[in-house]
């Protein structure tokens, strides 16, 4: 996951029963993979987790998809097959994450001179 002001890229696929999300390293990597499938998927995806948002679109809370959910939607729960289908049929999205704000270590106290 990116930190700070880094861009976060994902592919959103609206299924029959659920919305699915796969995190990807880079928008360009996905576009290159779509043109040339000989590129290994490991160089495109950012981890092999498939997430569901419980019909809340691309912005919902991300939960890991169960094998049953994947079987119902894609006919398989094999990670590589599911990820490939999501990349082929889904919508590519890139968002800019905001800098972290707030205290970074509450256990250090106020750290002010007394």
Structure description:
The chain has helices at 27-35, 67-74, 79-89; strands at 7-14, 19-24, 51-52, 63-64, 91-96. It is an alpha+beta fold and 114 residues long. The protein has a five-stranded antiparallel sheet.
Provide key terms for this protein.
single chain; 114 residues; 21% strand; 5 strands; five-stranded antiparallel β-sheet
Ordered list of secondary-structure elements with their pairings:
Layout: E1 7-14, E2 19-24, H1 27-35, E3 51-52, E4 63-64, H2 67-74, H3 79-89, E5 91-96
Antiparallel strand pairs: 1-2, 1-5, 2-3, 3-4
Q: What share of the residues lie within helices?
A: 10-25%
* Shape category: globular
Give the averaged pLDDT, no decimals.
Answer: 82
Q: Count the E strands.
A: 5
Radius of gyration: 18 Å
Q: Mind summarizing the main beta sheet?
A: 5 strands, antiparallel
Give me the number of helical elements. 3
Report strand %: 15-25%
The helix/strand order is EEHEEHHE
Detail the poorly predicted runs. none
Alpha-carbon distance between the two ends: 39 Å
Structural class: alpha+beta
Q: Strands of the largest sheet, in order across it?
A: 4-3-2-1-5
């Amino acid at each position: 996951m990116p930190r700070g002001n880094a861009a976060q890229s994902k592919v959103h696929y609206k299924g029959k029963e659920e919305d699915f999300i796969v995190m990807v390293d880079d928008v360009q990597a996905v576009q290159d993979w779509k043109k040339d499938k000989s590129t290994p998927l490991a160089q495109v995806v950012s981890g092999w987790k498939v997430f569901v948002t419980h019909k809340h679109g691309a912005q919902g809370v991300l939960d890991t998809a169960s094998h049953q959910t994947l079987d119902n939607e894609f006919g398989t729960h094999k990670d590589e097959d599911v990820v490939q289908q999501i990349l082929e049929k889904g919508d590519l999205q890139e968002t800019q994450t905001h800098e972290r704000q707030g205290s970074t270590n509450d256990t250090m106290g106020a750290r002010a001179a007394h």
